[in-house]
From TrEMBL:
Species of origin: Vogesella margarita
Domain named Thioredoxin: residues: 10-196
Record-given protein name: Thiol:disulfide interchange protein
Compartments, record wording: Periplasm
Alphabetized UniProt keyword annotations: Disulfide bond, Periplasm, Redox-active center, Signal
Family: Belongs to the thioredoxin family. DsbA subfamily.
Pfam (any one): DSBA
InterPro entries: DSBA-like_thioredoxin_dom, DsbA/DsbL, Thiol_disulfide_DsbA, Thioredoxin-like_sf, Thioredoxin_domain
Highest taxon listed in the record's lineage: Bacteria
PANTHER family for the chain: THIOL:DISULFIDE INTERCHANGE PROTEIN DSBA (PTHR35891), THIOL:DISULFIDE INTERCHANGE PROTEIN DSBL (PTHR35891:SF3)
The keyword Signal belongs to this UniProt entry's keyword annotation: yes
Amino acid sequence: MMKKWVLAALFLSSSLAHAALVEGRDYTVLAKPQPTVAAGKVEVIEFFSYACIHCYNLDPALEAWRKKLPANVEFRREQIVWNKPMEGLARLYATFNATKTLEKLHQPAFEAVMKKNINLAEEDKLRQWLPSQGVNTASFMQTYKSFGVNAQVARASKMTRDYAVQGTPAIVVGGKYMAQPAEPARLLQVVNELVAKVASGK
């Protein structure tokens, strides 16, 4: 009898894990769907912040997920900007991208902010931190203050508003669906199902 109950419980949990997505519980539909830039692919955007503990906790699972994406899925991150003080982190992230140091510095930046309480949104703190990462500070800061990075910070601010991001991490699929907050495994499962939904034209 006990074995039957265990099997029934396993079956139920498996069924729930693969249950159809429910709008309002698993995801929401953006009030104003946004155009995607990944032509012919399903676009997935994570709106995050280096100052967000939930983003930090999600990141290992998200990185593992990212490395296994099929060819028809395009993933990228966007550092959110809700107010002026947050522009520093958006500028940092844009500079990582512009200098092609994102793969090298993304995780250390998270560790610095979340574990060492180094506010990398402040320029003087950033200047002190960069040498410890083997980065040419002068070259990095030249890009940090460039017109191109200024434009990316303005873009991040606009996207935060356009996508109506209220909290992080927020993962948007196909410019239309935003996955609801959940523990990492469930969140990524919902994202996968939303990707399949968009890929099927729904």
